[in-house]
């Protein structure tokens, strides 16, 4: 039997449609209910559904009054505050196309995006690095828009462009991933097949407002379900998260694996009486960490696998746990396969994890890169680039990447992007970056380089900080006489890992 999992097509997205209108579709019925609590050390800052909807639709009005039109692209250079999701949904409400970006990006990195997208405007917090380009709409102006009359929802074809997100590409140049309004409709498969979330839930996401994992799982999906989103205030120590979970009666937790590991560090039992289960995504969850969480809390830690091009589409959930070591099963409504050179492989055989072209959550393509878009497809299958194997029950076990992409705290990072930035450092002759597991559940980016003599590591770190976002910067630098290469002279990044110096007892 072939490795194809198909439990039937998902309900088609209605038309006309607007992503933001769908997210806030319950706002009128739940007007007085708390939609968002920002959890600070001295209490919570609450937003009701009515206040949230008013801020979003007022922002939509303000952006139109500022001269922006449906279809215009706006680059978001905002910090880790509630301004981020309000501006994001406000733009989409008015039919404007936002591009959320990490506040950690440097001016050089933002300049590449400006050149790629030619945005009509930049939504800008003055404390966040940006680049010369179009006019800016400042933070004060954005906040003032919230009090304007509500915009009409810009309804239209669910297949039209709604937003763009950046992901690292194997070429070393970040790719702009275009998503349609229908992408939010498809996330109902996640709500059922991973979260098992209802209107009564209180979901705490440990990430920042301006991380796409938080934006989707931590905010938009709870609001779509009519639940309450809990977000720790900026600067919250991870060690304080268990107390935030307990005090604010979180029923679901969501974070990257490294956050759970740090929450458990030095602790035995965690007293979380309201917690039903927890969600993990962003990087591979190890079996020891999953078991440690279960032992400490008495709840399941449910993993999901996905990517910027299709969010998460394979997951475990409390009622259908994954076997030890497996990611889970494709969510109901998905059509997923394991693909080999000649198409889907037999069950139990390894291949590339692939998503059917008809998936409503699949991207429209890479902005300005039709060739790159076409190259990711084999017939009707979108190839993720990750390897897996499917068992008789549809559970998929992750086998690793078929390229050298790295994962830094949940962000996919291209080694070529890191190498391109560091190659300009004076005295460095060659450099290669790879991901190193320094201890269980802890991976870092390491840069291996050649130079006539070891270079000053402090200077290397400062140079990296100037040209790369924090999460892309190597945490270790290793001087070598020569980088390992194959017969064709190409650097073999995987051969670098055994060369990483290990501390000995």
Distance between the termini: 50 Å
Strand fraction = 25-35%
CATH class of the largest domain: Alpha Beta
Give the CATH architecture of the largest domain: 3-Layer(aba) Sandwich
- Helix and strand content put the structural class at alpha/beta
Large-scale geometry: globular
Whole-number average pLDDT? 94
Query: How are the strands of the largest sheet arranged?
Result: 3-2-11-10-12-13-14-15-16
Tell me the number of structural domains: 3
How does this model look, in words?
The chain has 505 residues and is of the alpha/beta class. The chain folds into 3 domains: 251 residues, ANL, N-terminal domain (Rossmann fold); 105 residues, Rossmann fold (3-Layer(aba) Sandwich); 94 residues, GMP Synthetase, Chain A, domain 3. 25% of the residues lie in helices and 28% in strands. The chain contains 14 helices and 28 strands. A 9-stranded mixed sheet has the order 3-2-11-10-12-13-14-15-16, sandwiched between helices. Strands 1, 17, 18, 19, 21, 22 and 23 form a 7-stranded antiparallel sheet that branches. Strands 5-4-6-7 form a 4-stranded parallel sheet, sandwiched between helices. Strand 26 and strand 27 form a beta hairpin. Helix 2 crosses helix 3, helix 2 crosses helix 5 and helix 10 packs across helix 11. The longest helix has 17 residues. The chain is globular.
Question: Secondary-structure map with pairings?
Answer:
Layout: E1 4-6, H1 19-23, E2 34-40, E3 43-48, H2 49-65, E4 73-77, H3 83-93, E5 97-100, H4 107-117, E6 121-124, E7 136-138, H5 139-145, E8 161-167, E9 175-180, H6 183-186, H7 188-195, E10 202-205, H8 212-225, E11 228-232, H9 241-247, E12 252-255, H10 257-264, E13 277-280, H11 287-297, E14 300-307, E15 311-315, E16 329-330, E17 335-340, E18 343-344, E19 351-356, E20 365-366, H12 370-375, E21 377-378, E22 381-390, E23 396-401, E24 406-408, E25 411-413, H13 415-422, E26 430-439, E27 442-450, H14 457-467, E28 476-479
Parallel strand pairs: 2-11, 4-5, 4-6, 6-7, 10-11, 10-12, 12-13, 13-14, 27-28
Antiparallel strand pairs: 1-17, 2-3, 8-9, 9-20, 14-15, 15-16, 17-18, 17-19, 19-22, 21-22, 22-23, 24-25, 26-27
Helix pairs in contact: 2-3, 2-5, 10-11
